Structures are given as C-alpha cells and as structure tokens.
Amino acid sequence: MREIIKHRIEQVRHGKVPNEYRRSRSLLFPNDWRSLPLNTALFENKERNFNKKYSKSDVLSVSGENGIVNQIVFMGRSYAGASVDNYHIVETGDLVYTKSPLKENPYGIIKLNCGNPGIVSTLYAVYHCQKPYTAQYLDQYFSIDCYLNNYLKPLVKRGAKNDMKVNNEDVLRGHIAFPSDAEQLKIIKILAQCDRVITLKQDLLDEKRKQKKWLMQNLLNPDSGVRLSKFKSMSWNNCTMSELGEFSKGYGISNENCLTGKIPCIKYGDIYMSFGTWFDTPVSFTETEIADGSPFISQGTLLFTGSGEDRLEIGKCTVYTGSFPIAVGGDIIIMEPNKNKVDPLFLAYMQYTKELIRQKAELCQGYSIVHIYANDIKKLTVSIPSTLEEQKAIIKTISSADRVITLLEQELAAWKEKKKGLAQLLMTGLVRV
Questions:
Q1: What is the separation, in whole angstroms, between the first and last Cα of the chain?
Q2: Dist. CA 218–CA 288, nearest whole Å
Q3: 230 Cβ partners below 8 Å, 6+ apart?
Q4: pLDDT tens digit string along 358-386?
Q5: Spatial contact of 133 and 89, defined as CB atoms under 8 Å apart
Q6: Which long-range contacts (CB under 8 A, 24 or more apart) does 365-371 make?
Q7: 34-177 falls under which CATH superfamily?
Q8: What is each CA distance from 349 to 217, 247, 305, in whole angstroms?
C-alpha cells in the first residue's frame, strides 16, 4: 500500500494524473468521489437575534488561526454596534463565512463553530449543515488554504475598496468533491486526533508562557516578595537608564536597501516582526555602500524601536547577542550598556515589565503613529540588583523558561505542518482510508 501511495505522489509531482483520478479546476480527487455543489450540504441560516436571546457578551469573531471564538475573550473587548438585535445567530456546528481578506486567504475564510452558540454581525454569512454531510469534514477541507482559495476565487469579486462582492447564497454554488460518508468519517477521525495533539501542545505552551510571565513579574520586581534564595539579603538600586549606558541612533537602511547585499544589518521592522528579548542572527542584509553610512554594533548592545502604532509596544527592546558586527538602520535607538553595572540581557528583560511599558507609553508622542526618542529612554527609571551575580541568576531562570517555550513552539509548528500535509493527502484521496 505504501508503494502505491508513493507512486501516486510521484506522479502528481511530475504533473501527471494517477490512474482512477481526475482533476477539476487544478484540484485532484478520485473518480469515485462525487463532485457536488456546496448547497447540497449546506443551507443558509437566516435566523436573527430579534428576540434578544443573545447580548454583546455572546458576540463571536472569526479568526484564521483560532477559528470561531468569543469576541470579548479573544480580543479583550466588544466591537459590536449599539444594538445586536439584527445579528445572525450561530449554533454549535454552524459554518461561518467572513469576507474579510487575510494574507493567505484573499477571499475570506470559512470556519466551524465548535464552541457555544452566539451571534455574529450581518457582515458574516452563517450556514447549517444537512445530513448525511458533516460540517467537520467541510471545516477540515476549508482549513487547507489552497482548497479554500480555489473554491472561493470564482465566486467572489473584489470591490473598489478591496471588499468581497458575493451574496450569501452564491457562496454555496461552487463544487466540492465528496468521498463516501464512511470515508468522510474516517478522515475526520484521523485529523481530529491531530487536532487533539495540537490542542494539548497549545495548552501546555500557554501554561508555560503564564509561568514565564509570573517569573518576570516577580523576579524583576524587588517589591514582589519573591527572591532567589541566595540573594534574599541583597539590595536593589534605583537608577535611570542614562546612568547605565551610552545612547546613539541608527541611520538609513530601508526595506528597499535590503533586497540584495551580504552585510548583516537590522531594520526597526525586524525588531517588531522577527525578534524577541534577544537575537544572535540578523534576518536582513544590505550592500556595503549602504551599510557604510550606518553605525555598527557588537554583542551586548540594546536596540529600541523609535516609532510604532501602539503606545504599549513603543520602544520595543531587543539585545544583540551575536558575535559579529551588524549595521543598524534608522528609527532605532542604540544603547551601549555599562557591563560593569548591568547585564545587557537582564536590562532587556526589564523592558518587558509592566512598569517600564507604562513609563514608555507615557513618554511617547503622537497619535496614530507614536514616537519615542533617546532622551525619553534615558529618563526611564529602573530597579536593578546591586550585584551582577544576582542579575545573571535571574536571567538564567527566565532564560530557562524561554528555552522550554521555544521548544514547545517548534513542536507545535511541526505538528501543524504534519497535520497540514496529512490533510492534503487525505482530502485529495492520494491516501485512501
């Protein structure tokens, strides 16, 4: 059986259609699967919240990564209008289509409500599944980006404002290849096992992140009452950032400057998008003549973003732990810490405490785009252990938690890729069950 599957996959890789298979709109499936319009399996749920059964606390949001979730729990607040009386009701087991485009899904996404019933705004379309078809199978089918995009593309037209032009009934006019009812159930069972592993990994990761947060809130706060046993009698000192190092700023190096070249560098966007508390390997490179106009930094240098869209993220900090010099682009504040007073990594971790985030938010300027400057960073007040030994001991404890989190993140990503590959094999029928 394995050899047969390998042979089918090799044929597909070489652009061939295996025996007893066919293609429809570039998608492959077995000849014995039925190609049916989606309205065979789904019909629109037009029920509204006119009887006020549900309130704003029951409003649901549709997330590409997390599926259908309670809006307040997921986003921290309600974004519903003044009245939710005309909102669509979503039952457990309903599928919801949101027309909001995502990077990987330019025509919107379709997700299954696995949680409690609730309501969604009138911008969403809600569908019931009818027997013998299963909403779980369709949810797994539409979780594959290429299948979802391939299905929606012929049905959806983009408006002038990049909005999706398609009515709720027309969403169901596309065709999907359905295996037999028995094979659908087997596919669902296999993929559900993967989902359970992914959920367990995610739950464990969330718990480890909470533990790290607790460590940071307590070990980095001298007034928390939590100290490493060896240092309980040691004092902490209050000082400003200006007392702990020298400040300068980056220059130049835009995204356009990083299309070619071999000189390692860092842009302020890299700090937001690619790096956490520390990094040892840059992700951007530029030409020599561009880099020559920028300052270079070495190991142990702290970098802060000088602008952003969120006051609570302004002045995001990372420390460079690599062994070779890198060029620093514009809109980045550079701090060379005095390593006789403070450990660079300890100081970087301190920047993620509630107190330092609060101070930076108060010092930054602007509205839609906010800015912070070196003189502002210099004014930040920090509390640090009087000995480098305690600083390093705290770093060791928090870094250990970080390593566990990194390993779990890698395991979770690997399982998601494993499930994605398995789903494609099952949904194409290249692997039969």
A1: 11
A2: 45
A3: 390, 393
A4: 999 999 999 889 999 999 999 999 999 99
A5: no
A6: 366/307, 368/309, 369/307, 369/308, 369/309, 370/307, 370/308, 370/309, 370/310, 370/311, 370/314, 371/306, 371/307, 371/314
A7: DNA methylase specificity domains (3.90.220.20)
A8: 11, 18, 15
Q: Do 34-177 and 235-385 have matching folds? A: yes
The alpha carbon dihedral of 60, 62, 63, 68 has a sign of positive
Q: How far is 195 from 117, CA to CA, in rounded Å?
A: 21
Strand order across the beta sheet in which 332-337 lies: 245-249, 332-337, 302-305, 317-320, 278-279
Question: Token pair 């549900």 is at which residue?
Answer: 54
3-state SS, residue 363: helix
Residue range 179-223+387-433 in CATH 3.30.70.1170: no
Domain locations along the chain: 1-31, 34-177, 179-223+387-433, 235-385
Number of alpha carbons in the 13 Å side-chain half-sphere of residue 429: 22
Length of the chain: 433
Separation of CA 248 from chain center: 32
Each residue of 43-77: pLDDT tens digit?
999 999 999 999 999 999 999 888 999 999 988 88
CATH classification (class only), 235-385: alpha beta
